[in-house]
Amino acid sequence: MNKMNKMSTLEQLLTALFLLPLEFIFSGLVVRYGWNNVLTPFDGVPNITLAQAIGLVILVRFITVSGGRKENDYDFDEMLSKTVISPTLTFVLLWFLDGRIRGGNR
């Protein structure tokens, strides 16, 4: 069985130029929020910047191996939803956790 790429050339270009950087920025915002609002109150860890958070995202993606589908196995709609939905759900969970940590003042 020969696997064909599900995305057209234009969709691959849009993914490379817009979706992947957008995914790193969204993920970086979520990591920065989680780090600065969830970790620092417990351990006195210093705050991090957005650039440091994006660097952490890239480092973790480089180190970890995804078991399963590769990025070119997704079609464009799946890639778009993965770019937006995963960081959004993670942010909501961290926001909920942050509210619990700070005594439910939110």
Could you characterize the architecture of this molecule?
With 106 residues, the chain is mainly α. The chain contains three helices and no strands. It has helices at 9-43, 50-63, 76-101. Helix 1 (9-43) packs across helix 2. The chain is elongated and about 50 Å long. It starts with 8 loop residues before the first helix and ends in a 5-residue tail after the last helix. The mean pLDDT is 77.
Defining traits:
106 residues, elongated, mainly alpha
Structural class of the helices, strands and pairings?
mainly alpha
Q: Taking all residues together, what is the mean pLDDT?
A: 77
Sketch the topology as an H/E string, one letter per element. HHH
Proportion of beta-strand residues: under 5%
| Percentage of residues in helical conformation | over 70%
Distance between the termini: 53 Å
Number of helices: 3
Number of strands: 0
Reported for the largest beta sheet, the result is: none
Point out poorly predicted stretches: none
How would you summarize what this structure contains?
With 106 residues, the chain is mostly helical. 71% of the residues lie in helices and 0% in strands.
Secondary-structure topology with pairs:
Elements: H1 9-43, H2 50-63, H3 76-101
Helix pairs in contact: 1-2, 1-3
